Every structure is written in structure tokens, then in C-alpha cells.
Amino acid sequence: MKRENYLTWDEYFMGIALISAERSKDPNSQVGACIVDKDNKIVSLGYNGAPIGYDDDKDMTWEREGDFLDTKYAYVCHSELNAILNSKMPVKDCKIYVTLFPCNECAKAIIQSGIKEVIYLSDKYEGTKENIASKKMLDTCGVSYKQYKKTEKQLVIKL
């Protein structure tokens, strides 16, 4: 008899995106991404953080306000972009699980890379200009998106 109550694919991949987000050193926003191919194989992972070689302890600022050059926004790589750039193989026709709906810059990268579907957990910036632009581009370019339906399953991992 088959085991019951195992993780669905969506639970599994969103769970991995959530775990990836835990690698972020950003004190305010931890975002993770997991790219999956048509055979449900993980192609790449990413989280929001400093670019490789940019010391996130010494060089990186995590400030949210002030002059643009004194904030994280000038330097941080978003989880989606990191997952796309981290991939050792093409991500064309893949789907991406992400803990936060992609911004307009990440939407461009998703479209350009050929990803066909976005499954997101939170859309906390819904209605902002960046969010509207992101959805407009995804819609126009045929990239589908849907919000992950929470199941309230809980996993405890002791490390």
C-alpha cells in the first residue's frame, strides 16, 4: 500500500524555495527560487544576495532607505536572477517556484531565459507599478503564473 500524505510536487518545490531563502543575509527580505524542468527535476536554485565576489559582510549594505547607492537595491541580486544565472543548463520551458512574485527586472530575465511558468507564494507588492509591469510583460509574452495554494503542512528539520 502506498504511503499517504507525502509532499505534492508543488509542496516539495516551494519548500525547497523556502529553504533556499534561508541562505539570504538580507535582514528584511529573504526570497528563494527553485527552477524545475518538465520532468520535475531541479535545474537550479537561488536566493537574494550579493553578487559573487562582493563581500556581503564588508562591502554590502542592507539598508532600505537613503541615497540609492547607499541601499541594498543598487547591489543585491534577486533570487530569480541568481537561479537563472546559477543554472548549468538552459532553463527554457522550465517553471520557477519563487517565494515572492517577481519584480519587473526579474520578469524580464524569466521571459528572456524561456521559463514558461511562475509559481509564487506571496504577492505582497501587488498593485505597485513594478508589479503591474511584471504581470503585463508575463501576460504579453505568454508566461503563465499562479499563486501557490498553501496546504499548511508543516515540516520540522533538525540540523
Structure, described:
It is a single chain. The protein has 159 residues and is an alpha/beta fold. The protein is 27% helix and 17% strand. It has 4 helices and 5 strands, in the order H-E-E-H-E-H-E-H-E. A 5-stranded mixed sheet has the order 2-1-3-4-5. Helix 3 packs parallel to helix 4 (129-140). The protein is globular and about 60 Å long. 31% of the residues are buried.
Query: Order of strands side by side in the largest beta sheet?
Result: 2-1-3-4-5
Shape label: globular
- Tell me the radius of gyration: 16 Å
The H-and-E topology, N to C, reads as HEEHEHEHE
Tell me the distance between the termini: 31 Å
How many beta strands in the DSSP annotation? 5
- Secondary structure tally, helices: 4
Strand content: 15-25%
Helix content: 25-40%
Class by SSE composition? alpha/beta
- Low-pLDDT regions: none
The biggest sheet, with number of strands, parallel, antiparallel or mixed sense and barrel status, is: 5 strands, mixed
Mean pLDDT level:
96
Short characterization:
With 159 residues, the protein is an alpha/beta fold. 27% of the residues lie in helices and 17% in strands. Strands 2-1-3-4-5 form a 5-stranded mixed beta sheet.
